[in-house]
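WARN no homologs supplied; continuing
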Amino acid sequence: MAEDLRSRFTAALKAAMLAKDVARTSTLRMITAKLKDVDIAARPSGVDKVPEEQILAMLRGMAKSRRESVELYRQGNRPELAAKEEAEIAVIESFLPQQMDEAAMRAAVAEAVAETGASSIKEMGKVMAALKAKHAASLDMAKAGPLVKAALGG
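OK structure emitted
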């Protein structure tokens, strides 16, 4: 990745403002504000700017909370609010690496099980740690869990 996420946020924000894209501009401002909060929270531990992995985790968290809001808005019959959240999710996810598809996920799980030599459900943590170390950016750990469980006969 030649260009880091911080500079991509700045460039995207400038472009959205020039294009007078109000929704995208507000979402990007939200992302940069959240990033500033995360940076400030990390300062006591001697970190001035959090690393990319932490920014990606922050973005995934933002998308996840919005997905939950979409569900609630749909249940509450508020389609306009659900649509706003979905538009924000699209902007947030545009900065995340491409997620693995089902087949690639199964292959990664099988590889991690083989690498760790795990044979029972008791070793699920070891397999999940191996997956996270190798595929953290492109693998949805929430979806990987059930696959690992199944692979270990859980």
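Residues 8 and 95 are 8 Å apart (CA to CA).
OK
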